[in-house]
Amino acid sequence: MSSQSNRPKVVFERISKSFLKREETLQVLDDINLEVADGEFVCLLGPSGCGKSTLLNIVGGFEKADSGRVTIDGEEVTGPSSRRIFVFQEYGIFPWASVWDNVALGLRDRPESERRRLVQDTIDMVGLSGFERSYPMELSGGMKQRVEVARALAVSPDVIYMDEPFGALDSLTRLTMRSEIIRIWEQEKKTILFVTHDVDESIQLADRVVVLSSRPGRIADIVEVGMQHPRDLGSPEYGRIKNRLYELLGVNHSV
Ligand SMILES: Nc1ncnc2c1ncn2[C@@H]1O[C@H](COP(=O)(O)OP(=O)(O)OP(=O)(O)O)[C@@H](O)[C@H]1O
Ligand SMILES: [Mg+2]
Which residues line ligand 1 (CB under 6 A)? Predict the structure, then answer.
């Protein structure tokens, strides 16, 4: 497989999608072409309704594109598979299961000893050691998100797809979760596709920000964020990228 390591991990090829709305056809995505490298952190940034979640559903195998295709490691996505692509959901954890069981549930096919080690390792990695026996209702919003991150990491999927995962968190917890996800990403070298409509979030996280235009969603541009982590949010480079992203989104952000 090493000879193929230069091959992109995820490829979106000419993806178009429309929905039938009453008598009308609503074109949501128009000719999306994108290559994501192995271990890359890509943010999809765009206004509400531009088709970000629809694109997620297509790459996750939940929805079929009208034309075009998505491949992961050269293999076409034809249906959902959590080993290929894990879709991080805001309310993905099971309320009736402990932290331990939530993480272990995705690993039912593993031998007991391996499963135990994996569950403990991922719980430790996301900073929830000591809460193994707690239930979701006993956890804060940020801690629940950590459980979902642990669930994602434990199954070791090829790609993790996150659709506005921190949207419901308060701003301080969001900042903490962003640095946590970067710490884990640097350690695990996962390929992450991260959907957001928050400009700052995209600059804080991404190697590249893919900016989608409003409906029908097209790639307006792809902006490279060549800054080292941890990123200096006050630097001129940060400001320059922020201006560019707002410009692409067609928003005047000066007040
Ligand atoms: N299953 C569906 N049937 C009909 N229309 C749909 C369906 N899914 C999405 N749409 C429409 O497609 C458009 C894009 O929706 P989508 O959820 O992908 O946007 P989004 O970029 O994720 O928005 P947000 O930032 O608000 O989450 C919307 O106009 C929505 O009404
Ligand atoms: Mg959405």
Answer: 19, 28, 46, 48-54, 197
